[in-house]
């Protein structure tokens, strides 16, 4: 039995995680705490919002008084910490927002858990969801392992690295039962269209330019979001306390090849002439400090806990495009209002 505080459960990964736990573990109670920033959307949770083991609280993880009140009321036995500012480009224009939520917010959650749990730590889990970006940037060869030295290079990855260090410090100093996972790039339904894949899907639908930073040679290792939350479920239940697990797709694509694959599949699905979407590709000024390559070695997770990705990329991308084509209302809703201002400011150069 668990009563779990999920933070950031109205976001992309958090909503898939909340859905998995609410449906798979009807005996658990799930409380979703989310500030509902531009990235948080309760529409992502429509199918579980009335489940008897689920409830939502609108609030900020930096609000320690609120966290203490929630721990006192619900007596959480576990935390699944997803809430974060997550977009690298936004961290370049507004780094302090990332320090505030990702560092101070994680610190506040750790303090609330430590104070609430005291010495009664049996069966408790503080699970911190983190990113492969903390390891920095790879050259053409090699993979990130759990022992790769941290070398974050953007305000986003530096704030996530800080939060990972804080979580480990609470394990070593106070024996707080923590688990950490560092995952590669996710894709799938409910992904906010500021990130490369949903942004390009949205722009292809609307015949708008597809902005490729630099030469499009940067490499990312893509994983279907449902495979990520399955890995979190496995680590949460079977991973060792105090340990870190890397999660990845063994699925590297240059940005240019990835966008071309999106164009190919979407031309077919939209009944457009072959090659027509590729004409939308537009090279724009590179991201400042753009990390060249991320690639995860997930063999620890495979060997110790038996997790493997379930979907081939072409199949995952096909499912993802279908979801966006079938959920145009969701896409229209999140791209109305403030999104237009964000897009016009970020992509002035296109
Ligand atoms: P997201 O931006 O889609 O969602 C973040 C959620 O956190 C939103 O619902 C937002 O409202 C909420 N939030 C933000 N600030 C908050 C605050 N101060 N208090 C409470 N809630 C707040 O992010 P995502 O892509 O789903 O990422 C979730 C987590 O997974 C993050 O910690 C991120 O670093 C990590 N991660 C993401 C990826 C990826 O490819 N998206 C890969 C690896 C790790
Ligand atoms: O690796 C995990 C990380 O993946 C997560 O921790 C982050 O939260 C998540 O946002 C993601 O970061 P990236 O910066 O890799 O993802 P993004 O979709 O923003 O960009 C993917 C690649 O595409 C990257 O090399 C930059 C490039 N890009 C991105 C955008 C938005 C473009 O070429 N054009 C664009 O318009």
Give a topology summary:
Elements: E1 3-7, H1 12-24, E2 29-34, E3 54-58, H2 64-74, E4 78-81, H3 88-93, H4 95-117, E5 125-131, H5 155-174, E6 178-183, E7 185-187, H6 196-205, E8 210-213, E9 219-224, H7 225-238, E10 244-247, E11 252-254, H8 255-270, E12 281-284, H9 299-305, H10 313-326, H11 328-334, H12 338-346
Parallel strand pairs: 1-2, 1-4, 2-3, 4-5, 5-6, 6-10, 7-9, 8-12
Antiparallel strand pairs: 9-11
Helix pairs in contact: 1-7, 2-4, 4-5, 6-8, 8-10
This protein binds nicotinamide-adenine-dinucleotide and 2'deoxy-thymidine-5'-diphospho-alpha-D-glucose.
Protein architecture, described:
- The protein has 350 residues and is of the alpha/beta class.
- It has a domain at 3-188 and 223-252 and 293-312: 3-Layer(aba) Sandwich (Rossmann fold).
- Helices cover 43% and strands 16% of the residues.
- The protein contains 12 helices and 12 strands.
- It has a 7-stranded parallel sheet with strand order 3-2-1-4-5-6-10, sandwiched between helices.
- Helix 2 (64-74) packs parallel to helix 4, helix 4 runs parallel beside helix 5 (155-174) and helix 8 (255-270) packs across helix 10.
- The longest helix has 23 residues, at 95-117.
- The model has no long low-confidence stretch (mean pLDDT 97).
- Nicotinamide-adenine-dinucleotide is lined by residues 7-8, 10-14, 34-37, 39-40, 60-62, 82-86, 101, 105, 129, 131, 160, 183, 185-186, 192.
């Amino acid at each position: 039995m668990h009563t779990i505080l999920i933070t950031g459960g109205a976001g992309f990964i958090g909503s898939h995680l909340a859905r998995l736990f609410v449906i798979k573990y009807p005996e658990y109670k799930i409380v979703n705490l989310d500030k509902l920033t531009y990235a948080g959307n309760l529409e992502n949770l429509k199918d579980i919002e009335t489940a008897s083991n689920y409830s939502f609280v609108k609030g900020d993880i930096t609000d320690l008084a609120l966290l203490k009140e929630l721990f006192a009321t619900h007596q959480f036995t576990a935390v699944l910490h997803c809430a974060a500012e997550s977009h690298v480009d936004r961290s370049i224009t507004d780094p302090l927002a990332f320090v505030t939520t990702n560092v101070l917010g994680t610190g506040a959650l750790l303090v609330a858990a430590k104070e609430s749990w005291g010495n009664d730590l049996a069966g408790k889990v503080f699970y911190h969801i983190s990113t492969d970006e903390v390891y920095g940037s790879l050259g053409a060869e090699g993979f990130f392992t759990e022992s790769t030295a941290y070398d974050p290079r953007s305000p986003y990855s530096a704030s996530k690295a800080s939060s990972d260090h804080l979580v480990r410090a609470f394990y070593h100093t106070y024996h707080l039962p923590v688990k950490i996972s560092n995952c590669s790039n996710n894709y799938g339904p409910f992904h906010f269209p500021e990130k490369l894949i949903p942004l390009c899907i949205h722009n292809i639908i609307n015949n708008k330019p597809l902005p490729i930073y630099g030469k499009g040679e940067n490499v990312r290792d893509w994983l279907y979001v449902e495979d990520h939350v399955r890995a979190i479920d496995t680590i949460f239940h079977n991973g060792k306390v105090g340990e870190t697990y890397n999660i990845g797709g063994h699925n590297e694509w240059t940005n240019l090849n990835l966008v071309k694959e999106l164009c190919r599949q979407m031309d077919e699905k939209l009944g457009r002439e072959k090659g027509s979407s590729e004409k939308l590709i537009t090279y724009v000024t590179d991201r400042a400090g753009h990390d060249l390559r991320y690639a995860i070695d997930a063999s620890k997770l495979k060997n110790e806990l038996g997790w493997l990705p379930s979907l081939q990329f072409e199949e995952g991308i096909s499912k993802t495009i279908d979801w966006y084509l079938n959920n145009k209302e969701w896409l229209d809703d999140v791209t109305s209002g403030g999104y237009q201002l964000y897009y016009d400011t970020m992509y002035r150069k296109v």
